[in-house]
Amino acid sequence: MAPRLGLIVIALNEEELIGDCLRSASICDELIVVDAFSTDRTVEIARGLGARIYQREFTGYIAQKQFALEQATADWVLSLDADEQLTFALRHEIEAILGAPGRADGYQIRRILYHIGHYYARGVYPDFHLRLFRREGAHFAGSEPHAKAVISGRMERLHAPMLHFSYADIADHVATMNRLTTQSAADNPYRPLTPFKMFANPAWRFFNFYILRGGFLEGTSGLYASMAAAFYVFLKYAKIYERMLKDRHGT
Q1: Residue 79 bridge partners (DSSP)
Q2: What pTM was estimated for this model as a whole?
Q3: Among 1, 46, 87, 103, which residue's Cβ finds the most Cβ atoms within 10 Å?
Q4: Do residues 93 and 157 touch, judged by C-beta distance below 8 A?
Q5: What integer pLDDT is reported at residue 193 of this predicted model?
Q6: Are residues 155 and 243 in the same domain?
Q7: Can you give the C-alpha Rg of the chain in angstroms?
Q8: First-last CA distance in the chain
Q9: 247 vs 251: CA distance, rounded Å
């Protein structure tokens, strides 16, 4: 008999995507949504699809996902963001894994980003994340805003990908980068090498994405992805530098 599988999702004003996320995970025996007091129809949609709803003030991605994990009762947990969806092939692969002997303790799943009309299916975004794991002994850690599941035991990778519909358009992408770099910069102190990193790290990120990961093979979409990745890094270090200036001048 296959072990029970539970889905955990954290959400805030995700009415456009939460329904597709939950429907894509119909193989799960329980659906858990931790909502940070959405003001749109997120809760209504999720409840209508059979999810258990917990409303909790958002204090960080790690704490929110850890709380969601603690509400799960299934043997195995699938952790998705509200803007992610399982593919048909991935659903079948998960079912096969859970129904077979000799399972690992956790599985990484590759995300394929869809943005400005393009699926980034090549190596620009390798983007593997531990999303399927035994509940027993698992917890969330990392550094804000990047929460990650941590397990003890053997980990493997699944072949089929999930889809990531992270940004509505370029303006939304820029707004997301602005929000996430603010959080990331807050957790990183200013150091003597910060000005150098403000130049060198974005340059390396662009080279890595565009040349080493083959962004140039994806045409203008690959150029955009590489430039955006470099800008994210620049913005983080620029905000660390800005915080130092404010602290120095007492503003």
Answers
A1: 8
A2: 0.82
A3: 46
A4: no
A5: 92
A6: no
A7: 19
A8: 62
A9: 6
- 70-87 confidence digits (pLDDT tens): 999 999 999 999 999 999
Q: Which residue type, as a one-letter code, is found at position 158?
A: L
Provide CB contacts within 8 A for 185, sequence distance 6+. 236, 237, 239, 240, 243
**What are the structure tokens assigned to 73, written together?**
């009762």
Same domain assignment for residues 99 and 199: no
206 closest CA partner among 177, 170, 234, 180: 234
What tokens does 137 get? 């002994």
pLDDT per position as a tens digit, 136-190: 999 999 988 889 999 999 999 999 999 999 888 999 999 999 999 998 898 889 9
Domain boundary among 164, 189, 211: 164
| pLDDT greater than 90 at residue 251 | no
* Residue 158 to residue 76: CA distance in whole angstroms: 15
Domain shared by 81 and 28, yes or no: yes
Amino acid, single-letter form, for residue 188: N
Mean of the pLDDT values across residues 189-212?
94
Are 16 and 111 part of one and the same domain?
yes
Domain assignment of residue 221, given as a range: 170-249
Per the structure block, which two tokens stand in for 192?
């003597």
Number of domains, the chain: 2
Indicate if 33 and 106 belong to the same structural domain.
yes
- pLDDT digits 0-9 by tens, 14-42: 999 999 999 999 999 999 999 999 999 99
Distance in angstroms (rounded) separating the CA atoms of residues 18 and 24:
10
Peptide bond into 192 cis (omega under 30): no
Of 108, 129, 164, the domain-final residue: 164
What mean pLDDT do residues 205-218 have? 93
Residue type, 97: I
